[in-house]
Amino acid sequence: MSSILPVFWSIVGHIALALFFIVLFLLLGVYFIYTLIAIFRGAAYVPTTHARVARLMDLAVISPGEKLLDLGSGDGRILLAAAKRGAVCIGIEINPLLCIYSRLRMKFFGAKNVTISQANFWDVSLADVDILTVYLIPGRMGQLKEKVFAEMKSGSRVVTGVYPFPDWQPEKREGDVCLFRVP
Q: Which domain holds residue 107?
C-alpha cells in the first residue's frame, strides 16, 4: 500500500501539470485569436504609456460627471485616469481576456464609475458620449470619423492617442495626441 501512494501522487501531479498547460494554451489561443480580430477591426492592443495617458487627460479637460468612452480600452489605464478625474467611464474592448484583466484592475484600484464591455466598438452607439478616446490604425480613422459625425452630438470631444483623423484639423495638439471637437 505504501508503494502505491508515491505512484498515485506522481500521476496526479502529471495530470495537474498537463491540465495547467492545456488551460494556458487555450487562454493564449483565445488571446491571439482576438488580437487578430482586433487588428482587422481597428488596432491591436498596445499599452499606452503613462505620459501619453496624462496628455490625453490634459487635452480632454474632463469635468466631473461627463461620460467618457474609450474605444479599444485594453488594460483600462485610460479609464482609470479618467475615473480619477470624475468621469463616468465606459470601456469597449473586443478581447475578453483584456476585459477580465481591466475589470480586475478597476476593482483593485477602487474605480467605481467604470464599466467595461466586451464588444466590437463599431457596433456601439456614440450618441450620449461627451468625450471619446481612441487609438486606431490610420486606415480606420476615416471610417471612425464618419461614425463620430453621424452619432456624436455637437461640441463633444474626441481625443486621439497617436493617429489623427484625415481631413479634420485638431483643436489642440500635444505631440501626437490630438483633441478634436465635433462640429
A: 50-181
Grouped pLDDT means (10 residues each) for the chain, 183 residues: 70 80 82 72 79 94 97 95 97 93 96 94 94 90 95 97 91 95 96
Distances (CA, A) of 112 to 80, 82, 91, 130: 10, 12, 13, 19
| Grid cell digits, residue 82 | 479618467
In this structure, is residue 38 part of a structural domain?
A: no
Q: Which helix (H) or strand (E) holds 36?
A: helix 4-41
140 found inside a domain: yes
Total Cβ atoms within 10 A of residue 110? 8
Q: How far apart are CA 173 and CA 93, in angstroms?
A: 26
> Cell 464591455, residue?
117
User: Residue 99, Cα to own-chain centre: how many angstroms?
Assistant: 8
Lay out the sheet containing 131-134: strands in order across.
Answer: 114-118, 88-93, 67-71, 131-134, 157-160, 177-181, 172-174
Residue 177 has phi, psi (to 5 degrees) of -100, 125
Is 102 domain-assigned? yes
Residue 43 belongs to a domain: no
CATH of the domain at 131: 3.40.50.150
- Cell numbers representing residue 17 in the block: 501539470
